[in-house]
Amino acid sequence: MSSAAAAGLPVVAEIVRSGFVEGHHYGSVVALAADGTVEWSVGEVAAPVLPRSCNKPLQALAMVDLGLDLPDDLLALACASHSGEPFHVEGVRRTLASAGLDESALQTPADYPLDDAAREAVVRAGGARAPILMNCSGKHAAMLATCVARGWDTATYLDPAHPLQVAIHDTFARVTGEPVAAVAVDGCGAPLLATSLTGLARAFAHLATATDGPAHRVAEAIRRHPELVSGTTRDELALHRAVPGLIGKAGAESCYAVAVPDGRAWALKTDDGAARVRPVLMAEALRRSGVLEEDGVDAAAVAATGRLPLMGGGKPVGEIRAAF
């Protein structure tokens, strides 16, 4: 028995090859109604999780609260796990330049772009891993710009005791409606705050329903520039384009949160952290909540984000399918 099964987490997806179920993904999903109550849930949605990059729009909200003033495209990039395409990298440089900084101020780990084509282009050009190419560099550049705007030290901006991180902590607790359950270190080196899937969904609903102020600015930046939040080939971009007004953010370890303007919101995570199953589960969650039947929604496009064929001999022979 897997550790997830032993912990009581349900099967949320099946791995089906040639009609044979060869494996499972275990996890949890929550759907909030427009009034903020839990409409339905699967698994454990009240226990703390580390939402990873799903937290970025909430971190951006705190920065705007603190006075960060970026154009919409760069604010979207502050929320991003970007693909490292040229326009992403150029945007990070613009954010830094707006604060009188350059990429040497970034404390992201050196990395290659997430996007295959962008990574291959860097390698072909003789380039190497660099902090600015790391997918979190937009967030880090915004953190640095916020520090400059407030007159705070930029060398220690990742310290949990830094006033920037203290403010992010306070904003995170306010919009999730829960005390911060734990503080870890994210892959990019920034403090990583824990909340439940329900709290995460609640925070995204806060952004999606805002009609003015910093929360509205963050949500509108994501809506207007979803390609900057992810990349031109990503399933997240396809989902943003398929559902009017949706805001969403994926995170590592198979975490995902989305919300729509009427306040409905969804958050999910699998125990094994498999990235491939994340869009499959979100497409099913939206279908289960009736979103695919609503006016203006491209149901076929939403369904396509959740379609993950398994290959055999270069041909599709199965799929990963939602099972909740």
Indicate the topology.
Elements: H1 3-6, E1 11-17, E2 20-32, E3 38-42, E4 48-49, H2 56-65, H3 72-78, H4 86-98, H5 116-124, H6 137-150, H7 163-176, E5 183-185, E6 191-193, E7 195-196, H8 197-209, H9 213-224, H10 226-229, H11 235-242, E8 247-251, E9 255-259, E10 265-270, H12 278-288, H13 299-305, E11 308-312, E12 315-322
Antiparallel strand pairs: 1-2, 1-12, 2-3, 2-10, 4-7, 5-6, 8-9, 9-10, 11-12
Please describe what this structure looks like.
- This protein has 324 residues and is α+β, with helices and mostly antiparallel strands.
- It has a single domain, classed as Beta-lactamase, CATH 3.40.710.
- The chain has helices at residues 3-6, 56-65, 72-78, 86-98, 116-124, 137-150, 163-176, 197-209, 213-224, 226-229, 235-242, 278-288, 299-305; strands at 11-17, 20-32, 38-42, 48-49, 183-185, 191-193, 195-196, 247-251, 255-259, 265-270, 308-312, 315-322.
- Strands 1, 2, 3, 8, 9, 10, 11 and 12 form an 8-stranded antiparallel sheet that branches.
- The protein starts with a helix and ends with a strand.
